[in-house]
Amino acid sequence: MKFLMVLFAVLGTVICAPLPEAAPEIAVSSGATVDGKGETKTDTYMDNADANKDGQLSIDELLEASGSFLPFDVIIDAFKMADKDTDSYLKGEEVGAALEEAHLLATMEIAKVTAADDTDENGKISGEEAKNATDIMTNPEHFEEDFATADADKDGELSGAEIITFIVLQQSKRLSGDNDAFLKPADNDGDNKVNLEEVTTAVKGYTPKAVIEEAFHQADANNDGFLDAAEHLLYKQLEGSLIAAAFNTSFVEVDEDMDGLLNLSDTLKLAESLQIDGIDGAFVSTYFDLASRSEATLIDQQEAVEFLTTGKTGIPQLFEEFDKDASKTINSDEASAMAVELALDAEPFKAAFAAVDKDANGELSPFELRAALVDYDQKSAATAAEASA
Ligand SMILES: *[C@@H]1O[C@H](CO)[C@@H](O)[C@H](O)[C@H]1NC(C)=O
Ligand SMILES: *[C@@H]1O[C@H](CO)[C@@H](O)[C@H](O)[C@H]1NC(C)=O
Ligand SMILES: *[C@@H]1O[C@H](CO)[C@@H](O)[C@H](O)[C@H]1NC(C)=O
């Protein structure tokens, strides 16, 4: 079930690592590659990228040309580093410098990913390793096809530039093609751009206030107060790493005994400090039991991140929709309505309800509802397996 997958979604952590010995050749636009030896020729790249043929490159032109070859933050950072005279255009030697910088940043990214995700330390990322790697697997729905496409030498693993291809594919199929998926839900007035207010509304329940503002500010490359498609993709990416950083800072502050674990009252303080729209004290108190993956009453940082940034999805979302009497429990009538809406088989779902309702009071707490859905899922998977055997 999709909402359970969302419930268990995790954010990647950022780890720094040394450069690998041999720098790989990396594609920076169609037909243009950089090998990291400081001899980059820019003719082919300029042919591709300089859309208005004014002999210089704006950040938008760079994003258009390289958006399906390099991660967005690599493009933006390379642009900033190379734009020495800070006139917001790359010209002459700045173009080659930007491509060299992009190569260096992409190579560092490969090293970082390999250090973090290559658990068997063979220098490559296998399919299983990639599936566990929440820093690069950002689009589970397209995992199989993106992994297969990125695996250029078809050895079943990703290494070198293949890792960059995978990251970019997962981020967005193509700059313009994925535009809709990112932009449409947030874009209230249909102008194909989003302002800070629209972004704030779109991420309600997920993102600390300060992170929204910082990511917006950084992503708005041309400072016009709006994010266009390319900038919005960059926003999404920045948001992820800034959320990780914000949790890092706030977690340490509330974890007074510094054991890396938070109880309910610590978590209330964490929520207060992060200011995530909709994730207030009442929310934390009601759903805290869901925060731990086990039955523990203390949660670690990863669990805190998951709990507070996916707060509006999964079980809380079901409560919002089906707990009509706002009792913070689901009674059997409410459960029946939910079964109909989610197209669950009535009888097995009733059985799951009864099985978890240990005190037989006819009401399920959020924690019990989750257990009931897990129980239902497991039993129906088993039944389906039997039927097909
Ligand atoms: C993936 O994660 C699971 C659960 O933590 C672990 O058991 C498994 O060994 C990991 N697989 C790889 C290839 O790292
Ligand atoms: C968060 O903290 C961990 C452990 O201290 C560190 O490795 C990681 O780089 C930090 N992440 C961010 C985004 O600051
Ligand atoms: C929660 O943990 C903090 C230390 O992090 C401790 O001071 C506090 O007493 C605990 N609260 C409860 C209700 O256990």
Automatic annotation (TrEMBL):
GO molecular function per UniProt: calcium ion binding
Source taxon at top rank: Eukaryota
Pfam families xref list: EF-hand_5
PROSITE patterns, per the entry: EF_HAND_1, EF_HAND_2
UniProt entry keywords in alphabetical sequence: Calcium, Metal-binding, Repeat, Signal
Oxidoreductase in keyword set: no
Gene3D superfamilies per the UniProt record, alphabetical: EF-hand
Name of the protein in its database record: EF-hand domain-containing protein
Organism: Plectus sambesii
Lineage: Eukaryota, Metazoa, Ecdysozoa, Nematoda, Chromadorea
